[in-house]
Amino acid sequence: MRIARFTYENSQYFGVIEGDPGSEVVAVVEGDPMYTPVKPTGQHVPLGDVKLLAPVIPRSKVVGIGRNYADHAAELGNDVPAEPLLFLKPNTTVISPGDAIGYPAQSTEVHYEGELAVVIGRLCRDVPVERVPEVIFGYTVGNDVTARDLQRSDDQWTRAKGFDTFCPLGPWIETDLDVSDLAVTTTLNGETKQAGRTSQMVHKVPDLVAYITSVMTLLPGDVILTGTPAGVGPMKPGDAVAVTVEGIGTLTNSVVAR
């Protein structure tokens, strides 16, 4: 099931995406699928008539995983960590499909990082690997935008990863998906820059959730960015970056000077 958050005629809704590619409609529902039971309203709106929003705004945090693809670690001259390398992005980094990524004045080297994103569906802590599917609500597409020069200069990554607009999410949440071997592709102005597969992850999704919850409690709506394949690189104001995860969809954003 593909669950979208969107605006239509100046009001905000949740809905289920239905129909074949090119002729999709949104079946509007009452309630928030993440937190409450929902019921159909009977209203159907063409997908092209709505403004898609980030499908979730994490109430507490976005947890990122660094260097989780060996080729990406190598391209930046880093070793692969023996354990998942965790960092946090504030929820104020989250923006919607079609929104602009703001290029901050403090950086001269802002990079795209296309990723599979995991959306947590329930409060959880110390989750065994075998029970991880019980706490996952679904999956979406993420772009872990990074000021690479600040990442190199700072002792930790909060500033490099934490600027407003540095976490585009969308276009919707897919709740029923085998994510063990999906294509992850990023294009910049239509040119393919990243082409990896989730099977290349060093630490797989179940292991990541188990590891993170051994450290911190995850809340409903929290998002895990699972790492990026090789091919990261700079973007600049005026560019358009699009991240596609097979089985979910494409997340497109422009870049503007902040």
Describe the structure.
- By secondary structure, this protein is mainly β.
- The chain is 11% helix and 43% strand.
- β19 and β20 form a beta hairpin.
- The mean pLDDT is 97.
- Keywords: Hydrolase, Metal-binding.
CATH topology of the largest domain: Fumarylacetoacetate hydrolase, domain 2
Major sheet summary line: 12 strands, mixed
- Taking pLDDT < 50 over at least 5 consecutive residues as the criterion, the unreliable ranges are none
Mean pLDDT: 97
CATH class of the largest domain: Alpha Beta
Straight-line N-to-C gap: 36 Å
- Helix segment tally: 4
Strand content: 35-45%
Class computed from helices, strands and strand pairing: mainly beta
- Principal-axis shape: globular
* Radius of gyration of CA atoms, rounded to a whole number: 17 Å
- SS elements, strand count: 20
CATH architectural arrangement of the largest domain = Alpha-Beta Complex
Key traits:
43% strand; Fumarylacetoacetate hydrolase family protein; twelve-stranded mixed sheet; 11% helix; 258 residues; mainly beta; hydrolase; Fumarylacetoacetate hydrolase, domain 2; SH3 type barrels; five-stranded mixed sheet
